[in-house]
Backbone:
């Protein structure tokens, strides 16, 4: 393997399909026209390249998110907020019992740069890993260009609230955010704002449904308002959440429109825990010891409410806080 300057990313020369292979510690990733192959000292694994790139895109854009990002039942990352574990089979009972699992810890910049380079090298022109299946091209085939605009698109992370002067802006036709085909019936009226003189820069209000109706992407929570550690992260969903999220804290869901079916499993073993169907107005709390994956039959609006308090993972794992928000 040659090291491509100027980073520490270990990448090979392109293979016969035009794609580089990448090494991270003792893990090796390679792809061909349809599949991604993962090898580690005690095992190997294969995934469809479109599922892999959709998961990789989110892990990169969300900077490894909260807790565990499972690409599927075998491969994933654990965020330690400064370092990241990359694992195969660690949260899979069968791999664990057979002692075939493998886990390595990396400084966040090294795994981030490796993942960014892999995402760039393996994403062909016309394929947008954030888009819904009918709103994007194909991930398959031999190497064909790139799609840097899509894979590096701006992630909305308001510091106070969308629409506040100097903060994240509203979406419009003019800034490349037309109303999605599934949301043509969503009213685009904006609230009237009547701030007292002198408070014009402090008062903001916007139509969240209109804002979400103009999302270009799926399964990508945007931080639209921040109050201390309380983050409102609404998102529009269609088809399947490309990762299985393993929580390190409680997350609340408010279903704003349409329907999402959640498969909920034990975070550590993958054993089935629940199937939850959420319809408009339903509110749910996902415990801190589960993993979950959502299925949205048509584009829907979901409010994910996150508590970003950095002390939560250790308070919960040490038993000082329960893994559920309410005992019933
Ligand atoms: C989640 O893991 O809670 C999650 C991730 C992405 C979404 C929605 C929910 O779009
Ligand atoms: Fe989650």
Residues:
């Amino acid at each position: 393997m040659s090291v491509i300057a100027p980073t520490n990313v270990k990448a090979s020369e392109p293979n016969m399909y035009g794609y580089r292979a990448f090494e991270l510690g003792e893990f090796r990733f390679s792809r061909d026209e349809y599949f991604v192959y993962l090898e580690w000292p005690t095992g190997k694994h294969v995934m469809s390249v479109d599922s892999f790139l959709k998961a990789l895109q989110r892990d990169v854009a969300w900077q490894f998110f909260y807790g565990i990002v499972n690409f599927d039942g075998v491969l994933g990352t654990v965020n330690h907020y400064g370092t990241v574990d990359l694992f195969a089979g660690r949260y899979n009972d069968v791999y664990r019992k057979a002692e075939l699992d493998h886990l390595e810890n990396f400084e966040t910049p090294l795994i981030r740069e490796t993942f960014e380079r892999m995402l760039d090298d393996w994403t062909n022109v016309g394929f947008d890993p954030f888009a819904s299946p009918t709103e994007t091209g194909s991930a398959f085939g031999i190497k064909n260009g790139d799609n840097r605009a899509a894979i590096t698109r701006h992630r909305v992370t308001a510091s106070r609230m969308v629409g506040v002067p100097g903060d994240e802006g509203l979406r419009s036709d003019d800034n490349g955010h037309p109303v999605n085909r599934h949301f043509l019936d969503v009213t685009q009226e904006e609230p009237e704002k009547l701030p007292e003189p002198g408070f014009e820069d402090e008062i903001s209000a916007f139509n969240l449904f209109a804002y979400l109706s103009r999302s270009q992407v799926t399964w990508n929570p945007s931080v639209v308002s921040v109050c201390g550690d309380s983050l409102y992260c609404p998102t529009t969903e269609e088809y399947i959440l490309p990762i299985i999220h393993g929580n390190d804290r409680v997350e609340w869901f408010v279903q704003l429109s349409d329907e999402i079916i959640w498969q909920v499993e034990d975070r550590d073993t993958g054993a089935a825990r629940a199937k939850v169907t959420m319809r408009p107005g339903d509110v749910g709390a996902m415990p801190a010891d589960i993993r979950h994956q959502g299925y949205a039959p048509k584009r829907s609006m979901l409010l994910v409410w996150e508590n970003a308090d950095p002390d939560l993972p250790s308070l919960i794992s040490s038993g000082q806080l329960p893994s559920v928000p309410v005992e019933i």
Summary: Residues 162 and 168 are 5 Å apart (CA to CA).
